[in-house]
Amino acid sequence: MALLLSRGFHRCPSYVLLESERRENTLIVRLKGEWRIDNLAQIESALAGVPAGVERYIVDFTGIETIDLSGAWLLHRWVRSMGDRLEIAGAPPAHFDFIDDVLQLEPKERVPPPEARLSLREALAWLGRNTLEWFRQTRDAIGFFGRVTVNGLRAFRSLKHLRVPSIARHVYETGIQAIPIVSLIAFLISVIVAYLGAQQLRQFGAEIFTVDLVTVAVLREMSPLLTAIIVAGRSGSAFAAEIGVMRLNDEIDALQSMGVNHFEVLVTPRLAGLLIALPLLTVIADAMGLAGGALLSSVLLDISLDQFLPRMKDALAPTTFWAGIVKTPVFALIIALVGTYRGLQVRESSRELGRLTTVAVVQSIFLVIFADAVFAVVFVELDF
Amino acid sequence: MQRVGNERQTTIRPRSGGTDSAAPIISVRGVTNRFGPQLVHDAVDLDVYPGEVLGIVGGSGSGKSVLLRTMLGLHRPNAGDVRIEGMDITRMSTEELLAIKRRYGVTFQHGALFSSLTVAENIQLPMREFFSASERTYDALAELRLRMVGLPVEAGRKLPSQLSGGMVKRAALARALALDPSILFLDEPTAGLDPISAASFDELIVYLHRSLKLTIVMITHDLDTLLATCNRVAVLVDRKIVVDTLEGIMNNPHPWIREYFHGPRARAAHLARGAR
């Protein structure tokens, strides 16, 4: 309220806009004061407070000091709602003529009448519409995947379709620019794992196995998964938002109208860029994770680097590193496909853009974790 | 709107010429705007008198929008001041400026309707921001604005993306009228409309100007709109402003202004008006 007052509005809670006086079957309503939008709440309560159930009303407008269109409109509506029971004494406000005029106006533009709702037929139609919508979306998703595949294959057949500069840009944006944050997080997570692991293993006097723990956890799981999640948050959302804004600006229609394949320009380079960037980022995350483990081991566990490295070599099976890296192209595929697909789905409004960007991030993170679980089971079965 | 339609053919210009006696409602004094090395406005002066319709024209990049943004207090000029009823908005606190801005109604070139709100919610947004009332009252007030701009009440339930170009312009005008402003700023009100919708929008502007005694400042490229609605015209040329009545500006010897008002497209517009 203090803020509103400081904006310089006239506000007076006890402001009286109308007085009424009853004479037998007649209620004389004298309006006064400022009937302006600034007093909206007072106008509302004043009109609501006029006693009902009287045979005749006489309204006197002469006391009104100032009136604006909003005040006049509310007053006019009230006068109209009273119908024949109401008589006007004194000249009505000037705006009444304008309002009468406006009420006579035929709308210049037409909109189709709103559909009837809440009938059984509507409910059935709704169900049908949504089912069809679901089928349509599934079909679209499959179609999207097909187009991506076709365009991807074509891109690898000829250099012209590959659009190397565009891919390079996406490698830079999704990969190189993500190095600091990915490194930092890989480092910290590995420090946390080593720290907590060491505390547990100390109880068995097996602190040296902290090295095994860090090595295997980081290379197999931590760094591919965390890197993919960070990239999904960073680049998945960026893909959806960039493409969504282009959609809102009709840029994609513009591309199509020029005969340019928008999949080739927008989707394939992002996909290819991420397919290159994510595995490389994961290698960096691996290195930073091991460095974090080594640092913590030397500081807290008195395992020097000279001990750490041979122990790490022993812990490493030939497949450990590859078990992590082999997953990353799949993660990259998921993130890029979900991001670009959701971006292309944006229609009409900015709210849609925000919603689909969120959906892109949430879905890609979910699918990455799901794929990781599948990999885990498969690797165990294959003894990889 | 039939009656207004008839009036448009003879377009009487209330108080044209006589405006100079009244105190200006907006006065721009010595405003200089510079973007890097590029000088857009070189100490320009402009007065807007109450109850007039002032058209602002100028070539692309001549700084029309910057001038409008300066008058709205959205852009702080490098030098000079803008007075609204004697108060300098370039030296005002944010809160004072907000109180002044409440008296403005502004429509932007592409409507700038909030895309996630329905048309009625768009109109109600400033009302809800400043005044408390019941839903029914808000709805009633939105209904009036919709009717005023010639939109059916059902249009209030639509999202901006569901409207045609002409309806978006009308909805934007309805939102600009939300707080009963005394000054309307219109940025390219008829750009992108077909000639019939544009003419009908011109009628609407004239009608509202006449009925509500609004002061209107509009940027326009549309000569038909200019001829149909404006009392005076401000032309931005060579980083300065030339202001005159419509008749005066047409006889201005400046080459760009001559080209603007007597070029091939202008001749077509005059011809069309002459024929009616």
Question: Descriptors for this entry?
Answer:
heterodimer, A: alpha/beta, Transcription Regulator spoIIAA, 2 domains, four-stranded mixed beta sheet, 4 strands, elongated, disordered N terminus, B: 276 residues, Rossmann fold, four-stranded antiparallel beta sheet, 10 strands, 41% helix
Structure write-up:
The complex is a heterodimer of chains A (384) and B (276). Chain A is α/β, with parallel strands linked by helices and 384 residues long. Chain A has 2 domains: 2-109, Transcription Regulator spoIIAA, CATH 3.30.750.24; 156-382, no CATH class. Helices cover 70% and strands 8% of the residues of chain A. Chain A has 15 helices and 4 strands. Chain A has helices at 2-6, 40-48, 69-82, 95-104, 120-157, 159-162, 164-174, 179-202, 209-248, 251-257, 262-300, 305-315, 320-325, 328-345, 350-382; strands at 18-23, 26-35, 56-67, 86-89. In chain A, strand 1 (18-23) and strand 2 (26-35) form a beta hairpin. In chain A, helix 7 (164-174) runs parallel beside helix 11 and helix 14 runs antiparallel to helix 15. Chain B has 276 residues and is an alpha/beta fold. Chain B has helices at residues 2-10, 64-71, 94-101, 119-130, 135-148, 165-176, 195-212, 223-229, 246-250, 255-262, 264-275; strands spanning 26-35, 38-48, 53-58, 79-84, 87-88, 104-107, 183-187, 215-219, 232-237, 240-245. In chain B, strands 6-7-8-3-9-10 form a 6-stranded mixed β-sheet. In chain B, strand 9 and strand 10 form a beta hairpin. In chain B, helix 4 (119-130) packs parallel to helix 6, helix 5 crosses helix 6 and helix 10 packs across helix 11. The radius of gyration of chain B is 19 Å and the shape is globular. Mean pLDDT of chain B is 81; it is low at 1-20. The chains are: A alpha/beta (384), B alpha/beta (276). The interface between A and B is large, with 36 and 40 residues.
